[in-house]
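TEACHING EXERCISE
Course module: macromolecular assemblies
Task: Read the component lines below, then compare them to the predicted structure of the full complex.
Student: A.B.
Group: 4
Components provided:
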Amino acid sequence: MTASQAWLLDCGNSLSIAVGFHEMAELLQNHNSYSVPGSPGYCSSLLVWQNNSLVPVMDLAMLSGKKQADNEVPFVSILSYQEAPRMPLQHLALKVKTAPRRILIDDEQVCDFPQGPNFSLLRPVTLSSVLHEENAVMIIDIARLCSAEFRDLANAA
Amino acid sequence: MAATNLAVISFDGVHLLLPQRAVATVEMTSSIISNDIHGESIGQLKTTSGEWPAYALQADFNACTQCPARYRYCVAINQDNQEAFSIACEEVSSITIENEDELRPLQTCMRAPDSPIEAVMLKGNKLMLVSNVETMQRFLSRRAAA
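Instructor-supplied answer key:
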């Protein structure tokens, strides 16, 4: 059986997720961001990255209802995704509490979707769940996480 | 590509861009009659050329109940030559955009359906928030109805 590499991201508030190995573009610390009024609370600012790209900053742990201070989640992981095949690459900056860890996952680790208020909203954007160090970790589809469907679902929650 | 002229309406640290051609007039906020209040407006901007519902917004686009003293100007905005609304602000200026690629649409995850912000632009170290008259009027009307 072949194991795949992934990144384990601690989003804070006891929420850990995994993303594909090639989806991680960069890790930033002490970034400056700009607030955008009228945007969803969990994705309400932009940071400037590389050649003046403006990248949305998302705080997934906020979806569990707890706002985290910037010093609680001092890093952002810049993730790359495509809305559809042959579309240009887009980026998302996900707030994380600690530096991401590279992990190996395989089919034998697949487990049930974790239970709990921190998790239920993420079910539609979860590709699969895996057991890692005795915790169920959701593998997230970044494109779906950035979709209008998820935005509207999160706003309604 | 034709250049685009935009009004920069600055309040509470926010820089809101609207089409310059929609600006009917810029008046002092002392011209706002505050005993004629609808919804979350702070009154009516009355001039010899028309009347516009006046709004004072905070940085998060929530409405102020009173016009802050530092908001000295009020920018009257027309839609199809009709009075649409006016926004109180600290500063008003204009910029010319040579290339509309400078205006970057917000990514889907940031675009709440009821948000007045459609795009952003980075100018130096300032983030400019881009709206248009129709979207802004719809946003303010909803607040007026609230």
